[in-house]
Design brief:
Two copies of one chain form a homodimer. The first copy, chain A, contains nine helices and 14 strands. The model of chain A has no long low-confidence stretch (mean pLDDT 93). Chain A has a seven-stranded mixed beta sheet with strand order 9-11-8-12-10-13-14. The longest helix of chain A has 18 residues. Chains A and B meet through helix 1, strand 1, strand 2, helix 3 and strand 5 of A and helix 1, strand 1, strand 2, helix 3 and strand 5 of B.
Chain lengths: 338, 338
């Protein structure tokens, strides 16, 4: 039989002694830093600049633990990557935990430990946080919100509206791994080949890319909606046509197989450790070299180019030499992937 | 029969066309500002200072709408007040919505409109956001995370560790209103007297207080765990004894009645529009005058004082002249109040 200390109770979210015990036994020893340890309602920060990037994301992925990652690692990497894609250096995270009554305290600890490891890897600190508890339901046990502050790099503008005809489109590695890993774990599918999520913090790789090529036009992480959504964002915001070649897009064989089995398009499946880069044609080799110098960008490839027309569209040259339009996914197929 | 457009579907959280439709029809027209409208993964901000306060809080209150407020107003005010109590001017909010499948789109719109009104009242802007959808469950329909950035005032330190023997303890108005209003709405209690939540943004009042008396020692908003938790935070962090007089603590008659009926201690019930202030005895009158000049502080009163011993304790002088210790609440009684 479990003792009350082993599972989350509603009173752990009441703001009293039980909340404080949970913080002191499970959260603070793991996310150890002097600002958070003060347990103030807001963290006081002295930043080296007042030019900031600010972002927030909630994570509701089910299951909480999946091959290659877990909701904690995902929450850190997703927010860090949003800041990095804006051309900023991620610095501080806020962590909001919503726990479901009945959740195992051991699982909370495992998630918080994963958050700490990912934060260290990404060189960010969790400086403020909040914990709430809701009644037991089918909710899946644990939601995480991470908000983040980054310092913007001077002279860098990586907005999705900057693509121009003649530019090159590059992806930092294979697509579809995260979504397929989560869906496989959720459905209890046992593919012969083990598929792992690519969830990883990209700020280091992107920082070195921007050191080498500060004039990169656009950066985007193809998360929810996958490559299809990210490319459409660029085509629309820049009012250009993005043309990609199916044969150039790196998709692992086992991911392609799983997608075909599950009825997904690998271009629409979420990635959590990949960057999409648009750069001038003259910068292509330098961008590829900078990405490939990083373990997370070893498989970086040019997958297409930018033309003027048809404006706002993404066109795919198929393996057979045909052409089809890549639409924005409707979002019907892949719920709770991040 | 409801059309699919009337209720939230899992696909509204998929990051594709449905997510985009929801944002464009329900959220962006209401939270209208140029930074948010860019729909970037992170907001780019140029702040007037690099000395910041940063905070995050999740809101899981049930029911979503209660007398005097709703989860949207609460989410804005709670975060704004955390920043204000740190002696900073709240500026920017990040908004994370977790919607439950089956929630009425009209309710989402109502909450977002309330967020917009509260943000305007508090003079903050929602500059970044995220929307996720989870399966239908007993979750209660809607969770909100608000993260916030404020600019710290130079020369102001309102930390809970600053109280000293001889200081005065002041509360900006009656306590217990928020928690009792929410519990009454949840339990369907129909008290003869209508009890409304006090949820309000305090940044304006606190800003004017700090203009008048920059040397205020401690500021705290007595939210979860109520006055009891906030006073214990001060007593422990400052290593002093906080002594309060029961007869001096403003509690509305109807709140006192409802607490006695429901078995709650008004000192342990959450407030969402009240500030607790500790100041030097010489500043008492100026603090009271500054608070009372604001509509939200009209009932401000001194409720006690700070002594050296017993360190770390909160003592209450009862109406009958006795004395009892005020403990940190356990958090057993009032779940999902904020």
């Amino acid at each position: 039989m479990k003792s009350a200390d082993d599972i989350i109770l509603l009173s752990h979210g009441g703001g009293g002694t039980r909340t404080s015990e949970l913080l002191k036994s499970v959260i603070l020893p793991v996310l150890d830093n002097p600002v958070l340890a003060k347990l103030d309602d807001a963290a006081c920060l002295s930043l080296p600049s007042s030019e900031l990037a600010f972002t927030t994301d909630s994570y509701v992925v089910k299951p909480l633990f999946f091959p290659g990652g877990d909701i904690g690692r995902l929450a850190v990497c997703g927010t860090v990557n949003d800041l990095a894609m804006q051309g900023s250096k991620p610095r501080y995270l806020g962590l909001g935990l919503i726990l479901e009554e009945g959740l195992r305290v051991a699982d909370v600890r495992r998630v918080v430990e994963s958050i700490a490891r990912a934060a260290k890897e990404a060189e960010v600190e969790v400086v403020t946080g909040d914990t709430k508890v809701v009644e037991r339901s089918a909710g899946g046990g644990l939601f995480i919100n991470t908000s983040g502050i980054g310092i913007r790099r001077a002279g860098v503008d990586t907005h999705v509206s900057n693509a121009r005809p003649g530019d090159v489109v590059i992806v930092s590695g294979s697509v579809g791994d995260h979504g397929v890993a989560v869906m496989s774990a959720r459905e209890g599918l046992n593919f012969q080949a083990h598929i792992e999520s690519d969830v990883a913090p990209l700020a280091g790789m992107i920082g070195r890319l921007l050191d080498a090529v500060p004039g990169v036009r656009c950066l985007r992480d193809p998360t929810r909606g996958g490559l299809a959504a990210a490319l459409n964002d660029i085509a629309r915001a820049s009012s250009v046509c993005v043309r990609i070649r199916e044969q150039a897009i790196p998709v692992r064989e086992e991911v392609r197989g799983a997608c075909s089995l599950l009825g997904f398009d690998p271009l629409e499946v979420a990635n959590e450790g990949k960057a999409l880069i648009v750069c001038g044609a003259a910068d292509e080799e330098r961008v590829l070299a900078a990405l490939r110098a990083d373990p997370l960008g070893g498989e970086a490839r040019a997958i297409g180019c930018v033309t003027a027309d048809p404006r706002g569209r993404v066109l795919l040259e198929t393996a057979l030499g045909g052409e089809r339009m890549v639409d924005v996914p409707t979002g019907e197929n892949l719920p709770r992937i991040c």
